[in-house]
Amino acid sequence: MVFRARRGTLTALSAALALAAAVFLFGGCSGSGKAVVGGGAVEKPQSPEGAAAEEGDPPAPAPVGVPAFDPGCETVIKTGNTGRREVALTIDDGWNRDDRILDLLQSYGIRCTVFVVGGRGVAEANPGWVARMDRMGFEVCTHTYDHYKLTDHPYDYVVEDIRKGQEVIAAVTGKTYPYMRPSGGSYNDTVIRACRDCSCYLVLWSNSLGDTDAGTTAERGASAVLSNLKNGDIILCHFGGHHTYETLKRVIPEALARGFRFVTLTELLAP
Length: 271
Known about the structure:
The structure is a single chain. With 271 residues, the chain is of the alpha/beta class. It folds into 2 domains: 12-43, no CATH class; 64-269, Alpha-Beta Barrel (TIM Barrel), CATH 3.20.20.370. It has 8 helices and 11 strands. It has helices at residues 7-26, 100-108, 127-135, 155-173, 189-197, 218-226, 244-257, 265-269, and strands at residues 35-37, 40-42, 76-77, 86-93, 113-116, 139-142, 179-180, 201-203, 207-208, 234-238, 261-263. The strands form 3 sheets. Strands 4, 5, 6, 9, 10 and 11 form a 6-stranded parallel β-sheet that branches. A 3-stranded parallel β-sheet has the order 3-8-7, with helices on one face. A two-stranded antiparallel sheet has the order 1-2. Helix 4 crosses helix 5 (189-197) and helix 6 packs parallel to helix 7 (244-257). The longest helix has 20 residues, at 7-26.
Protein backbone atom coordinates (compact mmCIF):
# COMPACT_ATOMS: atom_id res chain seq x y z
CA MET A 1 0.00 0.00 0.00
CA VAL A 2 1.39 3.44 -0.95
CA PHE A 3 0.57 6.55 1.08
CA ARG A 4 0.79 10.00 -0.48
CA ALA A 5 0.93 13.14 1.60
CA ARG A 6 0.39 16.70 0.58
CA ARG A 7 3.39 18.99 0.33
CA GLY A 8 2.29 21.04 3.35
CA THR A 9 2.00 17.94 5.50
CA LEU A 10 5.53 16.83 4.60
CA THR A 11 6.90 20.28 5.37
CA ALA A 12 5.32 20.25 8.82
CA LEU A 13 6.60 16.75 9.48
CA SER A 14 10.13 17.72 8.45
CA ALA A 15 10.06 20.71 10.79
CA ALA A 16 8.92 18.54 13.68
CA LEU A 17 11.71 16.05 13.06
CA ALA A 18 14.29 18.83 12.88
CA LEU A 19 13.09 20.23 16.20
CA ALA A 20 13.29 16.79 17.83
CA ALA A 21 16.83 16.35 16.54
CA ALA A 22 17.86 19.73 17.95
CA VAL A 23 16.46 18.84 21.36
CA PHE A 24 18.36 15.56 21.34
CA LEU A 25 21.67 17.10 20.28
CA PHE A 26 21.64 20.11 22.55
CA GLY A 27 19.57 18.84 25.43
CA GLY A 28 21.45 18.28 28.69
CA CYS A 29 21.16 18.89 32.37
CA SER A 30 22.81 21.03 34.96
CA GLY A 31 22.65 20.44 38.67
CA SER A 32 20.43 17.38 38.28
CA GLY A 33 22.95 14.75 39.30
CA LYS A 34 22.86 13.25 35.81
CA ALA A 35 25.77 12.71 33.49
CA VAL A 36 25.34 14.12 30.02
CA VAL A 37 26.57 11.88 27.24
CA GLY A 38 26.01 12.89 23.63
CA GLY A 39 23.14 15.16 24.65
CA GLY A 40 21.24 12.47 26.57
CA ALA A 41 20.99 12.28 30.36
CA VAL A 42 22.35 9.07 31.82
CA GLU A 43 21.89 8.29 35.50
CA LYS A 44 25.00 6.98 37.23
CA PRO A 45 24.29 4.24 39.76
CA GLN A 46 24.57 5.31 43.38
CA SER A 47 24.11 1.88 44.90
CA PRO A 48 26.25 -1.12 45.82
CA GLU A 49 24.96 -2.84 42.68
CA GLY A 50 26.92 -0.39 40.53
CA ALA A 51 30.03 -2.56 40.37
CA ALA A 52 33.38 -0.81 40.45
CA ALA A 53 34.79 -0.06 37.03
CA GLU A 54 38.36 -0.88 36.17
CA GLU A 55 40.75 2.05 35.74
CA GLY A 56 40.87 1.38 32.02
CA ASP A 57 37.11 1.62 31.62
CA PRO A 58 35.53 4.71 30.03
CA PRO A 59 35.37 7.59 32.54
CA ALA A 60 32.19 8.79 34.19
CA PRO A 61 31.68 12.21 32.56
CA ALA A 62 30.86 15.17 34.75
CA PRO A 63 27.37 16.54 34.15
CA VAL A 64 28.43 20.14 33.66
CA GLY A 65 31.47 22.03 32.44
CA VAL A 66 33.88 24.08 34.50
CA PRO A 67 31.87 26.98 35.95
CA ALA A 68 33.04 30.58 35.86
CA PHE A 69 33.68 32.65 38.96
CA ASP A 70 30.95 35.24 39.52
CA PRO A 71 32.29 38.27 41.43
CA GLY A 72 28.68 39.25 42.18
CA CYS A 73 28.21 36.20 44.40
CA GLU A 74 29.37 35.63 47.95
CA THR A 75 33.02 34.54 47.97
CA VAL A 76 32.77 32.28 51.03
CA ILE A 77 30.67 29.13 50.53
CA LYS A 78 29.51 27.11 53.52
CA THR A 79 26.54 25.16 52.19
CA GLY A 80 24.72 24.40 48.94
CA ASN A 81 21.15 24.49 47.67
CA THR A 82 18.86 23.26 50.43
CA GLY A 83 15.91 22.80 48.10
CA ARG A 84 17.04 19.38 46.87
CA ARG A 85 17.91 16.19 48.72
CA GLU A 86 21.55 16.39 47.68
CA VAL A 87 24.87 16.61 49.50
CA ALA A 88 28.44 17.09 48.30
CA LEU A 89 31.30 14.97 49.60
CA THR A 90 34.55 16.95 49.63
CA ILE A 91 37.92 15.34 50.34
CA ASP A 92 41.07 17.23 51.32
CA ASP A 93 44.87 16.88 51.35
CA GLY A 94 46.40 13.76 49.78
CA TRP A 95 49.08 12.74 52.27
CA ASN A 96 49.01 9.07 53.23
CA ARG A 97 46.07 8.73 50.92
CA ASP A 98 43.92 5.61 51.05
CA ASP A 99 43.05 4.73 47.46
CA ARG A 100 40.32 2.40 48.71
CA ILE A 101 38.31 5.62 49.04
CA LEU A 102 38.41 6.16 45.27
CA ASP A 103 37.51 2.51 44.68
CA LEU A 104 34.54 2.86 47.04
CA LEU A 105 33.24 6.01 45.37
CA GLN A 106 33.71 4.46 41.95
CA SER A 107 31.68 1.42 42.99
CA TYR A 108 28.74 3.74 43.78
CA GLY A 109 29.22 5.94 40.73
CA ILE A 110 29.71 8.92 43.04
CA ARG A 111 31.46 12.04 41.78
CA CYS A 112 32.78 14.46 44.34
CA THR A 113 34.86 17.60 44.71
CA VAL A 114 38.38 17.23 46.03
CA PHE A 115 40.82 19.80 47.38
CA VAL A 116 44.35 18.50 46.95
CA VAL A 117 47.64 20.00 48.08
CA GLY A 118 49.67 21.07 45.07
CA GLY A 119 53.17 20.56 46.44
CA ARG A 120 54.87 18.85 49.38
CA GLY A 121 54.76 15.42 47.77
CA VAL A 122 51.06 15.39 46.89
CA ALA A 123 49.53 16.43 43.52
CA GLU A 124 52.75 17.52 41.84
CA ALA A 125 54.40 14.22 42.74
CA ASN A 126 51.38 12.06 41.83
CA PRO A 127 49.95 13.20 38.48
CA GLY A 128 48.50 9.75 37.82
CA TRP A 129 46.40 10.00 40.97
CA VAL A 130 45.12 13.43 39.92
CA ALA A 131 44.38 12.11 36.42
CA ARG A 132 42.39 9.18 37.80
CA MET A 133 40.12 11.49 39.79
CA ASP A 134 39.61 13.66 36.74
CA ARG A 135 38.65 10.60 34.69
CA MET A 136 36.14 9.66 37.38
CA GLY A 137 34.40 13.00 36.85
CA PHE A 138 35.67 14.56 40.08
CA GLU A 139 36.15 18.30 40.40
CA VAL A 140 39.85 18.47 41.29
CA CYS A 141 40.47 21.78 43.07
CA THR A 142 43.30 23.35 45.03
CA HIS A 143 43.98 23.16 48.74
CA THR A 144 46.80 25.64 48.02
CA TYR A 145 50.30 24.62 47.00
CA ASP A 146 52.04 24.71 50.39
CA HIS A 147 49.14 23.97 52.76
CA TYR A 148 50.24 26.49 55.35
CA LYS A 149 47.86 28.63 57.39
CA LEU A 150 47.04 31.47 55.01
CA THR A 151 46.08 33.94 57.72
CA ASP A 152 49.74 33.95 58.82
CA HIS A 153 50.89 35.29 55.44
CA PRO A 154 50.59 38.52 53.40
CA TYR A 155 48.41 39.01 50.35
CA ASP A 156 51.11 38.32 47.73
CA TYR A 157 52.00 34.97 49.31
CA VAL A 158 48.35 33.89 49.46
CA VAL A 159 47.76 34.73 45.79
CA GLU A 160 50.88 32.83 44.73
CA ASP A 161 49.97 29.84 46.91
CA ILE A 162 46.50 29.60 45.38
CA ARG A 163 47.62 30.10 41.78
CA LYS A 164 50.52 27.69 42.00
CA GLY A 165 48.22 25.02 43.41
CA GLN A 166 45.77 25.61 40.56
CA GLU A 167 48.54 25.40 37.95
CA VAL A 168 49.76 22.02 39.21
CA ILE A 169 46.26 20.56 38.82
CA ALA A 170 45.57 22.24 35.47
CA ALA A 171 48.82 20.83 34.08
CA VAL A 172 47.26 17.37 34.48
CA THR A 173 43.54 17.93 33.97
CA GLY A 174 43.50 20.99 31.74
CA LYS A 175 40.84 22.45 34.06
CA THR A 176 40.81 25.18 36.69
CA TYR A 177 37.73 25.03 38.90
CA PRO A 178 36.87 28.28 40.71
CA TYR A 179 37.03 26.69 44.16
CA MET A 180 39.71 26.80 46.85
CA ARG A 181 39.78 25.50 50.40
CA PRO A 182 42.29 27.03 52.82
CA SER A 183 44.25 24.88 55.24
CA GLY A 184 42.24 24.37 58.40
CA GLY A 185 39.44 26.51 56.97
CA SER A 186 41.30 29.59 58.22
CA TYR A 187 40.63 32.86 56.41
CA ASN A 188 40.42 36.61 56.88
CA ASP A 189 39.77 39.64 54.68
CA THR A 190 43.20 39.27 53.03
CA VAL A 191 42.48 35.66 52.08
CA ILE A 192 39.04 36.58 50.72
CA ARG A 193 40.55 39.36 48.59
CA ALA A 194 43.21 36.99 47.28
CA CYS A 195 40.55 34.42 46.37
CA ARG A 196 38.53 36.99 44.45
CA ASP A 197 41.64 38.17 42.60
CA CYS A 198 42.35 34.52 41.71
CA SER A 199 38.74 34.18 40.49
CA CYS A 200 37.80 31.49 42.96
CA TYR A 201 35.40 30.91 45.82
CA LEU A 202 36.57 30.02 49.32
CA VAL A 203 34.84 26.75 50.21
CA LEU A 204 34.20 25.66 53.79
CA TRP A 205 31.82 22.93 55.01
CA SER A 206 28.64 22.32 57.01
CA ASN A 207 29.23 18.70 58.06
CA SER A 208 32.33 16.65 58.82
CA LEU A 209 33.56 13.12 59.52
CA GLY A 210 35.92 14.53 62.14
CA ASP A 211 38.65 12.32 60.70
CA THR A 212 41.52 14.59 61.77
CA ASP A 213 40.92 13.45 65.35
CA ALA A 214 43.28 10.57 66.12
CA GLY A 215 40.87 9.32 68.79
CA THR A 216 37.88 8.97 66.50
CA THR A 217 36.35 5.69 65.32
CA ALA A 218 34.39 4.76 62.20
CA GLU A 219 31.23 4.50 64.29
CA ARG A 220 31.74 7.92 65.86
CA GLY A 221 32.52 9.56 62.52
CA ALA A 222 29.47 8.05 60.84
CA SER A 223 27.24 9.13 63.71
CA ALA A 224 28.61 12.68 63.54
CA VAL A 225 27.71 12.97 59.87
CA LEU A 226 24.40 11.13 59.80
CA SER A 227 22.95 12.72 62.93
CA ASN A 228 23.22 16.15 61.31
CA LEU A 229 22.83 15.30 57.62
CA LYS A 230 20.59 17.75 55.77
CA ASN A 231 19.88 19.06 52.28
CA GLY A 232 22.74 21.09 50.82
CA ASP A 233 25.42 19.80 53.18
CA ILE A 234 29.06 20.12 52.17
CA ILE A 235 30.73 17.19 53.92
CA LEU A 236 34.41 17.39 54.87
CA CYS A 237 36.80 14.46 55.08
CA HIS A 238 40.43 13.67 54.20
CA PHE A 239 42.25 11.23 51.93
CA GLY A 240 44.60 10.30 54.76
CA GLY A 241 42.23 10.82 57.66
CA HIS A 242 41.65 8.52 60.62
CA HIS A 243 39.27 5.69 59.63
CA THR A 244 37.97 7.73 56.67
CA TYR A 245 37.42 4.72 54.41
CA GLU A 246 35.64 2.71 57.10
CA THR A 247 33.48 5.72 57.99
CA LEU A 248 32.45 6.36 54.39
CA LYS A 249 31.50 2.68 54.05
CA ARG A 250 28.90 3.36 56.74
CA VAL A 251 27.84 6.87 55.72
CA ILE A 252 27.26 6.36 52.00
CA PRO A 253 24.73 3.49 52.05
CA GLU A 254 22.80 5.02 54.96
CA ALA A 255 22.63 8.43 53.28
CA LEU A 256 21.41 6.82 50.06
CA ALA A 257 18.80 4.85 52.00
CA ARG A 258 17.52 8.15 53.39
CA GLY A 259 17.05 9.44 49.86
CA PHE A 260 20.10 11.67 49.60
CA ARG A 261 22.12 11.88 46.40
CA PHE A 262 25.84 12.64 46.32
CA VAL A 263 26.76 15.34 43.79
CA THR A 264 29.68 17.64 43.01
CA LEU A 265 29.97 21.09 44.53
CA THR A 266 28.97 22.72 41.25
CA GLU A 267 25.81 20.62 41.11
CA LEU A 268 25.03 21.34 44.77
CA LEU A 269 25.29 25.10 44.20
CA ALA A 270 23.04 25.12 41.13
CA PRO A 271 19.73 27.02 41.58
